[in-house]
Design a protein that fits this description.
Elements lengths: L14 E6 L3 H12 L4 E7 L2 H10 L4 E4 L2 E2 L2 E2 H11 L5 E5 L3 H11 L3 E4 H16 L7 H12 L14 H11 L4 H8 L3 H14 L5 H15 L1
Parallel strand pairs: 1-2, 1-3, 3-6, 6-7
Antiparallel strand pairs: 4-5
Helix pairs in contact: 2-3, 7-9, 7-10, 8-9
Length: about 230
């Protein structure tokens, strides 16, 4: 974990940003862009959940930028962990994950924005400043989709993969990446019976006939996203 080589007193009036991403090159690129700004600086970097929680206990940032794909954890869980410790912390998710599926989920978890890594190349500063200003940042497509959803009756049912809980979606994605139930249990820190329960609920909610169809669905989904 890197602290950006500066102590709290050296940040001055610049807004402090914590970066959480397991790819050093991604953190390096983001840090370069942010540190070039007169009003922003990276105060802490982390590659996983443990480093992120240790870093935020040492230097509380003004904003956390979090990836969803982290070793031995998931960004959705980290968002909840960070907000449990610092409820007012603005969080911006920067991820390769499917925006149409995850943007709404990260907002429900308490984050203030979602931007894909492809979009971040051009719009990361706009996203960061909007979230720091207290607003929410999502793409125009997602904003329109959320507006349509807000207009629907409160009792309207969700359909398809939207029915899955965050944990069920995580299990489904790990299945699509080829992990076996015991590997999924280890990755998500669950017992094997809980993973099997999630798989059964996924099958029921998606209207699939058996475990083989669930696996095929998961693999096809990962193929389409890749």
């Amino acid at each position: 974990m890197s602290s950006g080589g500066a102590k709290h007193s050296e940040f001055g009036a610049r807004r402090r940003v914590m970066l959480v991403d397991d790819h050093p090159l991604v953190r390096e690129r983001l840090a370069e862009v942010l540190n070039e700004q007169p009003d922003l600086c990276v105060c802490c970097e982390a590659a996983d959940r443990a480093e992120a929680l240790a870093g935020i206990a040492r230097v509380v940032p003004d904003l956390a930028i979090v990836d969803l794909s982290l070793p031995n954890s998931h960004g959705l869980d980290l968002i909840k962990d960070l907000l449990a410790r610092h409820p007012r912390l603005p969080i911006l998710v920067v991820s390769m994950h499917d925006e149409s599926l995850y943007a709404e989920r990260v907002l429900r978890a308490g984050a203030r924005g979602f931007i894909t890594k492809q979009e971040a190349t051009q719009n990361i500063l706009s996203a960061v400043r909007r979230v720091l200003a207290g607003d929410v940042y999502v793409s125009p497509q997602i904003a329109a989709r959320l507006a349509v959803k807000a207009a629907r009756p409160a009792h309207a049912e969700r359909c398809g993969i939207e029915q899955l809980t965050d944990r069920e979606l995580q299990v489904l994605e790990l299945m699509g990446h080829g992990l076996k139930p015991r590997q999924i249990a280890a990755e998500l820190h669950l017992d094997i019976k809980t993973v099997e329960t999630h798989r059964a609920r996924i099958r029921q909610k998606l209207g699939l006939k058996n475990a083989r169809e669930v696996l095929q669905y998961a693999i096809e989904r990962c193929r389409n996203l890749g």
